[in-house]
Design goal:
With about 375 residues, the chain is an alpha+beta fold. It has 3 domains: about 110 residues, Acyl-CoA dehydrogenase/oxidase, N-terminal domain (Butyryl-Coa Dehydrogenase, subunit A, domain 1, Orthogonal Bundle); about 110 residues, Butyryl-CoA Dehydrogenase, subunit A, domain 2 (Beta Barrel), CATH 2.40.110; about 140 residues, Butyryl-CoA Dehydrogenase, subunit A, domain 3 (Up-down Bundle), CATH 1.20.140.10. Helices cover about 50% and strands about 15% of the residues. A hairpin with a 2-residue loop joins strand 9 and strand 10. The longest helix is centred in the last third of the chain and has 29 residues. Bound molecules: flavin-adenine dinucleotide (FAD).
């Protein structure tokens, strides 16, 4: 797929990531998926290339690119492995971005250079047993005690937590205030009272690792509060729109790989005296895949360009995330269908894409939550 709207710098960046993915990720993606282990060394490689800092300014250790380059990075990584892209996105668009947007100068200087160089890995912990789509239900409690906050509670389904060097955790500092009583905390090595469970078994995204984090009287210095007390989480929700653009880009990248897999298989598979791809139903399905993916990519690119121009982009990011991730689910399901029994086998890419796609509709605000956001902006 070519994109005539990309400028020469964006094309060069995309092609460099594409070549890296082809060499370093695609050949290993199935093995990593089956081994259910994240190849952590990749973080350092991506950091050395300057790509972890693609969306961050140079003064904090980034490479000053912006949302468009970041979307290109996510889309290309997801073509090789959505699970690898997921680990990178949680580290950059959530954990590191929260420190960048809400941290003070000292916190930024302490965390970001190593994080964007891939020397440390971050996770973002919001979800809990009782807090999913409804973000006001966070029960993890932080009570101020002298120069510390004392954290108690548990975070569920936290990507990268089995190997994270730093954690950005949402906790309630004033429960009766709901969303207006939640704060963000930076958890760092050496803090006592933090334990991480064994990685969970999942349907898809095999190579990404997630677990539960339990806080048992964990003392966190006041200096590790990120942003203002009580308003930290609300502010984070306003500024972490990069995550929705990233999720949209994953959907497009994953969907493109699924479409390419279908094109290759149906072109080589002879039935009724001709390649399967010559049958009209198959040709029309492939045409619909390409059309929907193109629409998803243009929505993603538009949201990223609006963000880079410094304009509000909440609606654009939600529309891109909603459309591109639902498109990915549709494309990956159709791709598995077109690849027949061969696609259903455990070693095939088609079944991996099919298992990986669904979570894109759940994380970073489910499709229903995106629709709520868009409807609210329509004034309805
Ligand atoms: C692979 C994976 C990785 C994850 N990584 C992280 C991570 O790193 N950090 C983190 O904090 N969390 C993570 N999560 C958790 C994720 O944030 C939650 O899955 C997400 O917030 C949705 O919550 P839930 O799954 O509890 O769904 P629920 O809240 O139980 O929702 C169930 C269904 O009800 C629908 N629903 C709920 N409320 C409404 C409503 N008001 N209107 C209409 N429909 C509604 C939802 O859309 C959904 O379809 C991860 C999850 C997965 C599967």
């Amino acid at each position: 797929m070519t994109d005539p709207t990309l400028n020469p710098e964006e094309i060069q960046f995309r092609d460099a990531v594409r070549a890296f993915v082809k060499k370093e990720i695609t050949p290993n993606a199935t093995r990593w998926d089956m081994e259910e282990r994240y190849p952590q060394a990749l973080f350092q490689k991506l950091g050395e290339l300057g790509w972890l800092g693609a969306a961050f300014p140079e003064d904090v250790g980034g490479s000053g690119g912006g949302s468009v380059l970041y979307a290109l990075l996510c889309a290309e990584l997801a073509r090789g492995s959505a699970a690898i892209a997921l680990g990178l996105y949680v580290h950059t668009a959530l954990a590191s971005a929260a420190v960048f947007h809400l941290g003070n100068d000292e916190q930024k200087a302490r965390i970001l250079p190593d994080a964007l160089a891939g020397k440390t890995i971050g996770c973002w912990g919001y979800a809990e047993a009782g807090a999913g789509a409804d973000i006001s239900c966070v029960a993890t409690r932080a009570i101020k005690d002298g120069d510390d906050y004392v954290l108690n509670g548990a975070k569920l389904y936290i990507t990268n937590s089995p190997f994270a060097d730093f954690m950005v955790i949402v906790a309630s500092t004033e429960p009766e205030q709901g969303l207006k009583g939640m704060s963000l905390f930076l958890i760092e090595p050496g803090m006592k009272g933090v334990s991480v469970s064994k990685p969970f078994k999942k349907l898809g995204m095999g190579a990404s690792e997630m677990a539960e984090i339990v806080f048992d009287d964990c003392r966190v210095p006041v200096a590790n509060l990120l942003g203002p007390e009580n308003y930290g989480f609300l502010q984070a929700l306003k500024v972490l729109t990069l995550g929705r653009i990233a999720s949209a880009a994953f959907g497009v990248g994953l969907g493109r790989s699924a479409m390419e897999e279908s094109i290759d298989y149906t072109a080589g598979r002879m039935q009724a005296g001709k390649p399967v791809s010559r049958h009209q139903f198959v040709r029309f399905t492939l045409a619909d895949m390409a059309t929907r993916l193109e629409a998803g990519w243009q929505l993603t690119l538009h949201a990223a360009r609006v963000a880079d121009a410094g304009h509000p982009h909440d609606k654009e990011a939600s529309m891109a995330k909603l459309f591109a991730t639902e498109t990915a689910t549709w494309v990956c399901e159709r791709a598995l269908h077109l690849c027949g029994a061969q696609g259903y086998m455990r070693e095939s890419n088609a079944q991996r894409f099919y298992r990986d796609c669904k979570v894109l509709e759940l994380g970073e605000g489910t499709s229903e939550i995106q629709r709520e956001t868009i409807a609210r902006m329509l004034g309805v």
